[in-house]
What does this fold into?
Amino acid sequence: MDHTKIKNVKELKDAGYKSRSIKDELKDNLLEKIKNGEELFKTIIGYDDTVIPQLKTAILSKHNINLLGLRGQAKTRIARSMVDLLDEYIPVISGSSVNDDPFCPISTFGQEIKKEKGDDTPIEWMHRSERFFEKLATPDVTVADLIGDIDPIKAATQKLSYADERVIHFGMIPRANRCIFVINELPDLQARIQVSLFNILQEGDVQIRGFNIRLPLDVNFVFTANPEDYTNRGSIVTPLKDRIGSQILTHYPNDIETAKKITQQEIGDDSKNAKVYVPEIAKTLIEQIGFEARKSPYIDANSGVSARMGITMFENLISRADLRRVESDEEETSIRMSDFEGILPAITGKVELVYEGEQIGSEKVARILLGEAIKEIFNQTFKKLKKLKKENEEKEFDDVVQWFLEHSEFVIEENLSNNEYAEKMNSIKPLGVLIDKYVPEHESADELLIKELILWGMVEHEKLNKKKVDGGVSFADELLGSLYGK
It folds into this structure.
């Protein structure tokens, strides 16, 4: 159907157009895409075996949906992705504020113009991108915001009764007729406002200022909520929960690889910097910090650790390396461990600390998380080092310690050029032996970062001592470092 040539109801009838409710539209288009083998919800990563099957079932059941999960679990993205299941264009009566269906208008405006002009009723076409409405639930949201209110000026000038629908200034929900309407953080909506949604969901009735207006709205509702809200900030009133067809639980990524895919999809274009090379192990370390945060005793688990933390950490990491590249007047550079200093502000602003964490301080907690992540990646890549060991055990790591015994002053300055940095790292010969043994198939461009990671990992295992000095970081044997206050 060439919608550009259809301008009125008669032409719409001649083209064979048939009206569908939005829930039928979503269901039919979902089934069609499944039959055609099309990829669905392709921007939603990590939910293929959990959330997506439940979402498909809810759409096929023509349910309103509540997405329940902690922050940063792609709840709003899921709701927005449903727009792709809508028809590309739908016809609406021209000038209608509630997107009246040309065949079955629900507003007084639409009914009167249809009665007056019949098949000559003018229509316009609404793209699916315009059929998504979103409202963040806050305590100051009113019934007038969502449903509408009486306009006394209109009533006076047109000499209309307040019971006449024509005096109503419609709110967001009526204006979202034939659309997807999302209310984010539903428990934050005051209980009395939630009550106003009862009949809209079930019967299509709207009550404004005590006047009942029969307005059979055609809206697919999607709500989002945080489980913590049920006890700490508010709740979803029971009758409203009862009217929501499907409640779907979201979750954080189950593994590092999934988390990496999400971050790489979401980072801004500025962070896809061709002049800064990011070794794979650096991407892994970024995501491991998030996993450590979610199980840390210093972080409030009920609040969650948003996937946005991984995104902002990655962006800061790239920016820190790019700043160093510019200051060193280099054409390009690669991530170094010192660049991870730049991610700390992205951690401190993204986590909610428990009392013990607040006592320690947010920046120290961030450093603890970084240290735990380094230790975990070190253990996975190499081996878990023991403080007490048997004879001849971990000999290759003892060679690194011995090297530092013989080179008591070793500082990695932050402003080293690429060549100077490579020369410094390659001077520690035992590191090369470790890489050949444990990471034989690594990318050559990743080698310097892996070498530096070994040093930081040995610090976490208390085999070496690390101290921040002016312009860089110094490493020393643990015993000598403690003797000299390092």
Q: What stands out?
A: The radius of gyration is 30 Å.
